[in-house]
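Worked example

This section walks through a single chain of length 370. The input is the sequence exactly as stored; nothing has been trimmed or padded.
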Amino acid sequence: MAGVAAGLPAASAFGAAVDNPKSIASSAKKAASPETILLKDYRPQSIYKIPVTEIAKAKFPIIDMHSHPYAKTPREIEDWIANMDQVGVEKTMILTMATGVEFDDQYRKYSKYPERFEIWCGFDFAGYDKPGFGPGALKELERCHQMGARGVGEIHDKGKGLRSGKSNAPGMHPDDARMDALWEKCGELGMPVSLHVADPIWMYQKMDKTNDGLMNAYAWRLDNQPGIVQLSGMVGIFERTLARHRNTTFIACHFMNLDYDLARLGEGLERNPNLYADISARYAETGPIPRFASQFYAKHADRLVYGTDMGVDKEMYRVTFRILESLDEHFYENEQFGYHWALNGFGLNDEILQQVYHDNAAKLLASRKA
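Given that input, the structure is written out below as tokens.
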């Protein structure tokens, strides 16, 4: 565009100011000033001349225990399978969170590829706040199981109550007596439950200069929600649920959101033999603490399962491989994660990788009833 310096935004970005060269120069100067850069826009680049590891395919075959029905059409599903082949993903769990017609629709789409996808259903919480809740939800769970659902998830409770896709139960938490029959039925049917409890710790903390994950925390903030159960309280609720339903296998999504306190998660795994934890969507949260994280993986390698929860792109998978497999240091990943800090690789050994990538999930899935 004539009369506008190279690199400046197009005229439409400036509105009426485009007719005023001084205004354009002033805006450009302001945009370039460090004092005007917002934390959410911060995109540092590493200065270090150190090894960079590119891992196109995982070292061992993978079972992805945490994904969703991202692909909407047969062509998109086929493209996803092609990506899985290229990066080494053998099979993916599709956590639909759905029941009824919605579950049936997802099941029809993905059940055409039984070797590559497994479809899990949700819970129907309709009438949860009325007398007589339970039999209808059990009937729908059994129907989904008969249709082909092999697990349940992803069930959410971030502190305000249970949610399964579009079905909500505000104020009812996993340890509520109204849930007992559903949890027990999951165990009876051999359906593992993928349960998302709480959210990252930053979402509950003050939104001020001390918040370590402020740019993401503010977008998903929970600190301003009246009556919300805090993260620690939700972990306690989950543990009471685990203790009461020993015949049901639970998978805590996202390290149970204890990525900031892996020692507590480890204690929970030791106390609860019916508990696994998936590592999905918490790569950036553990990447800054590679030594402690790798020690945690070594100690609990038999109870951790691989998951993504971040779409279907090849590069998404590959950044997880870089964190788990390499010893790379101080690298940034802005396309997949929105944090400002540098990440590091854990350099997990072959035995741990094979367990986390594949063997733990294979054992868990094989132990279910037909």
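What to look for: Residues 151 and 191 are 4 Å apart (CA to CA).
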